[in-house]
Amino acid sequence: MDQPVAPGNVNDVDDAVAAGHIRNARRILVVGCSGGGKSTLSQKLARHFDLTYISIDRDILWLPGWVQRDRAEQRRRIVERIADDRWIMDGTNPSTFDVRVPRSDIVVWVRMPRLLCVWGVVTRWLKYLGRARPEMAPGCIEKVDWQFLEFIWTFEDKFSPRIVAGLAQHGPHVPVLQLKSRRQMQRLLDLLGVPA
Predict the structure, then answer these.
(1) Rounded to whole angstroms, how far apart are CA atoms 178 and 109?
(2) CA-wise closest residue to 49 among 105, 88, 82
(3) CA-CA distances (angstroms) from residue 81 to 56, 60, 78, 118?
């Protein structure tokens, strides 16, 4: 099944690297479903290219104990952080694309199959059992419940159209690179010379 993409779409990992889209980017937005590998990819790119890593979960959305910040405060924090010159931001929420996408040099859409995303969150939960992971706000103990699994299972049908529309509306000229497999993700890292 063909999946819709935003107009600024970059079709191939090799093309993205050859054109310097990632290597020359000062501001990278990484979006996609939970469990797909957004945070891991973002942190590797941040270290390699000396970009400030911004986690929507840790820095914007959550307070300790899984309490969400007020929406106005979330937006204020985003605007404050994207004013910086060099960053990589990991987080999807299309409701803030109007401020995040136009400021981005490229969007990397980690668009993995849903079974892989489910596997990702379950293995992450086991790895951080009883603890908060580093890219999550302190006091937000890693958890998996049916509501979260349903969110992941229906993400492509329910949320991807909003991502496509948001990218088209707020960044029609911003390149979008989709990574649809672990092999593509590893190919990108290899081409960029990012260590494992």
Answers:
(1) 5
(2) 88
(3) 11, 10, 5, 30
Tell me, rounded to whole angstroms, the distance of Cα 107 from its chain centroid.
Answer: 9
In order along its 196 residues, the chain shows pLDDT tens digits of 344 444 467 767 877 776 688 999 999 999 999 999 999 999 999 999 999 999 999 999 999 999 999 999 999 999 999 999 999 999 999 999 999 999 999 999 999 999 999 999 999 999 999 999 999 999 999 999 999 999 999 999 999 999 999 999 999 999 999 999 999 999 999 999 998 7
Which phi and psi (to 5°) does residue 53 adopt? -90, 125
* Angle in degrees, CA 176, 78, 192, rounded to 5: 40
As a whole number of angstroms, the distance between CA 104 and CA 174 comes to: 7
For residues 40 and 182, give the distance between their C-alpha atoms in angstroms, rounded to a whole number.
12
Asked whether the whole model's pTM tops 0.90, one would answer yes
User: How far apart are the C-alpha atoms of 150 and 40, rounded to whole Å?
Assistant: 22
Q: Which of these, 54, 19, 29, 78, lies nearest to 135 by C-alpha position? A: 54
Q: Which domains does the chain have, with CATH numbers?
A: 9-191 (3.40.50.300)
Structure tokens at 177: 């690179």
Phi, psi of 48 (to 5 degrees): -65, -40
The type of residue at 113 is: P
